[in-house]
């Protein structure tokens, strides 16, 4: 049973959803389609508010009345005919008041008449008391002002929805968008959106089996043979929670794998690897990286913007005599060649291409990090060997100093023996001198070998530093090349979509909206600057998109209303 707390929460969620629609679509110049999650939430919240505390009424034939009948009665009292009412009544496939009410809400969203139409229905207090109980949010001036204020903000958002749908009696269209949301500059035409959504038929719903499910009536709201709209919102939040749990589990598994790899690397570091083997491995890795860099540069050069333009303009396949391209380049050219034939697949193919390029860059960065780790381990072993070589050099220096002192001592002993004239002492001194000379020559040979090994280690270290520098330059070049390719592809996509949108507008006879020079204060009239009151009627000019009051606007029939200045510019004879 819905209470006051849940009602306040739904109104806050409605305001939050409107803010998300403006941030995600209006500011980024994107149309809202049937696959938008924000649209699903908005429709569910509107239906919940319109059905909340609605009195139970039945027609002459016993059919339960719904907010569709309330809207028809309210609009009939204020004006003679409403275009949305006439359009919905012409849909013969809609049999229930719930389906007709949903079709009317979607029509008002597309034609930017939702807030105005609902405000016209709320002008008569007697009609409100006739259709709603006291707990309805439309009987509270504060809540009514909050709801209408949020809905008036939707007049600045463009909705491209399929209006001819026969499945609204069962449920709202709850299928997700097949495409990843494009970049902020991408715009899709309503003709394309309507074509795609109409092909879905009555199968694409929020339920996987395509069948309707019964609903549970809220407190004060009648039960209808359609799924509960508020339960759809809760189901969306549960789905998001499950996705977060799965993402957390994946991250945890990745962290465990990283820890195992670190332990394996540490165990490998404890083993002594010869300097010559490390040098060979590093040289092989460097050669492989150079070959990969040359291949990537060759692939990047093969991608020509002129070929992409020709493929877009003619829609023909590549000739048999063309040079072979890399798999990523063939995927990119194939996706762009489908732009004239399948407008809906442009964003998907280019987004897949961008994802593929990012994945390749990630793999290259991972390989570079692995090579850097190997170089770091080799440097660590080299430092240990250099420290050992330094200790050996100090030891050899001390031994050489001891040999010099011994040689000097033997020289003095020999001179003393010669001076004494003892032949035996002289022979012993000469034998001792020869023995020490052999030891000195052997030690000198070992010292020369140690110095030679030290020089070779220094040369190896210099080569490793040079390889590290080349590896860094290689990674930077690959990253710059990939980012430049992504920027070029995004720019080309923007140009193609702008051309497509311009052609669609020219085909449909739609004039490009001219920005209004008047201030955009939502609380003031754009022409007379009168402050909008709670129940004052506000209109959005279909030409300059400015907010004007009833006095400063002109009714243009089925085309909506426009301000006086735009009307005079279009019809000079009216002045």
Molecular structure report:
- The protein has four domains: about 5-225, Methane Monooxygenase Hydroxylase, Chain G, domain 1 (Up-down Bundle), CATH 1.20.58; about 230-270; about 270-510, no CATH class; about 510-575, Herpes Virus-1 (2-Layer Sandwich), CATH 3.30.40.10.
- Helix content is about 65%, strand content about 0%.
- It contains 16 helices and four strands.
- Helix 1 runs antiparallel to helix 2 and helix 3 crosses helix 5.
Termini separation: 58 Å
**Beta-sheet strand percentage?**
under 5%
Number of strands: 4
What's the pLDDT, averaged over the residues? 71
Radius of gyration: 41 Å
**Helicity level:** 55-70%
Structural class call reads mainly alpha
Order of helices and strands: HHHHHHHHHHHHHHHEEEEH
Number of helices: 16
Morphology: rod-shaped
Number of domains: 4
Order of strands, widest sheet: 1-2
Which runs of at least 5 residues are low in confidence (pLDDT < 50)? 176-247, 266-276, 303-344, 514-519
Largest sheet: 2 strands, antiparallel
Properties at a glance:
zinc, coiled coil, two-stranded antiparallel sheet, 4 domains, Znf_FYVE_PHD, two-stranded antiparallel ribbon, Methane Monooxygenase Hydroxylase, Chain G, domain 1, single chain, 16 helices, mainly alpha
Task: Note the topology.
Layout (H helix, E strand, L loop, with lengths): L3 H23 L10 H15 L15 H12 L4 H7 L7 H14 L3 H8 L3 H7 L9 H13 L36 H11 L28 H41 L5 H28 L2 H10 L12 H11 L7 H76 L2 H86 L29 E3 L6 E3 L3 E3 L5 E3 H7 L5
Helix pairs in contact: 1-2, 1-8, 2-10, 3-5, 3-6, 4-5, 6-8, 11-14, 11-15, 13-14, 14-15
């Amino acid at each position: 049973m819905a209470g006051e707390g849940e009602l306040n929460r739904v109104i806050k969620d409605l305001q939050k959803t409107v803010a998300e629609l403006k941030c995600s679509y209006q500011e980024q110049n994107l149309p809202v389609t049937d696959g938008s999650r924000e649209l699903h939430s908005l429709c569910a919240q509107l239906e919940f508010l319109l059905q909340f505390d609605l009195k139970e009424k039945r027609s002459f034939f016993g059919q339960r009345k719904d907010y569709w009948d309330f809207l028809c009665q309210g609009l009939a009292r204020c004006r003679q005919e409403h275009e949305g009412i006439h359009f919905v009544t012409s849909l013969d496939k809609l049999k229930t008041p719930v389906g007709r009410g949903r079709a009317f809400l979607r029509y008002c969203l597309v034609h930017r008449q939702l807030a105005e139409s609902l405000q016209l229905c709320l002008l008569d207090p007697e009609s409100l008391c006739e259709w709603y109980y006291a707990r309805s949010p439309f009987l509270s001036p504060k809540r009514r002002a909050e709801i209408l204020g949020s809905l008036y903000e939707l007049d600045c958002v463009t909705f491209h929805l399929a209006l001819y749908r026969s499945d609204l009696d069962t449920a709202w269209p709850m299928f997700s968008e097949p495409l990843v949301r494009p970049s902020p500059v991408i715009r899709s035409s309503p003709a394309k959106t309507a074509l795609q959504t109409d092909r879905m038929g009555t199968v694409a719903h929020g339920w996987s089996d395509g069948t309707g499910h019964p609903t549970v009536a809220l407190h004060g709201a009648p039960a209808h043979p359609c799924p509960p709209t508020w339960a759809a919102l809760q189901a969306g939040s549960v789905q998001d929670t499950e996705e977060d749990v799965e993402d957390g589990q994946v991250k945890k598994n990745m962290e465990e794998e990283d820890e195992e790899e670190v332990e394996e690397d540490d165990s490998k570091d404890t083993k002594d690897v010869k300097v010559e083997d490390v040098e060979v491995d590093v040289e092989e890795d460097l050669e492989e990286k150079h070959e990969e860099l040359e291949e990537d540069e060759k692939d990047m050069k093969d991608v020509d913007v002129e070929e992409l333009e020709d493929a877009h303009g003619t829609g023909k396949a590549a000739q048999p005599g063309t040079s072979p391209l890399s798999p990523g380049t063939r995927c990119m050219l194939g996706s762009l060649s489908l732009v004239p034939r399948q407008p809906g697949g442009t964003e998907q193919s280019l987004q897949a291409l961008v994802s593929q390029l990012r994945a390749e860059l990630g793999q290259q960065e991972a390989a570079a990090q692995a090579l850097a780790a190997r170089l770091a381990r080799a440097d660590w072993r080299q430092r240990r060997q250099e420290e050992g070589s330094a200790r050996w050099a100090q030891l050899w220096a001390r031994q050489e100093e001891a040999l010099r002192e011994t040689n000097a001592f033997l020289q003095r002993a020999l001179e003393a023996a010669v001076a004494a004239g003892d032949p035996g002492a002289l022979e012993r001194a000469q034998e001792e001198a020869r023995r020490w000379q052999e030891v000195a020559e052997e030690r000198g040979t070992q010292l020369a070998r140690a110095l030679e090994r030290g020089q070779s280690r220094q040369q190896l270290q210099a080569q490793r530093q040079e390889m590290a520098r080349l590896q860094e330059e290689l990674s930077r070049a690959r990253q710059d090349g990939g980012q430049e390719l992504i920027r070029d592809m995004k720019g080309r996509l923007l140009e193609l979509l702008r051309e497509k949108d311009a052609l669609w507008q020219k085909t449909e006879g739609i004039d490009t909206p001219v920005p209004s020079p008047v201030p955009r204060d939502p609380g003031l009239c754009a022409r007379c600057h009168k402050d909008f009151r709670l129940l004052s009627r506000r209109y959005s000019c279909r030409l300059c998109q400015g907010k004007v009051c009833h006095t400063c606007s002109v009714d243009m029939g089925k085309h909506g209303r426009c301000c006086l200045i735009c009307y005079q510019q279009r019809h000079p004879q009216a002045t």
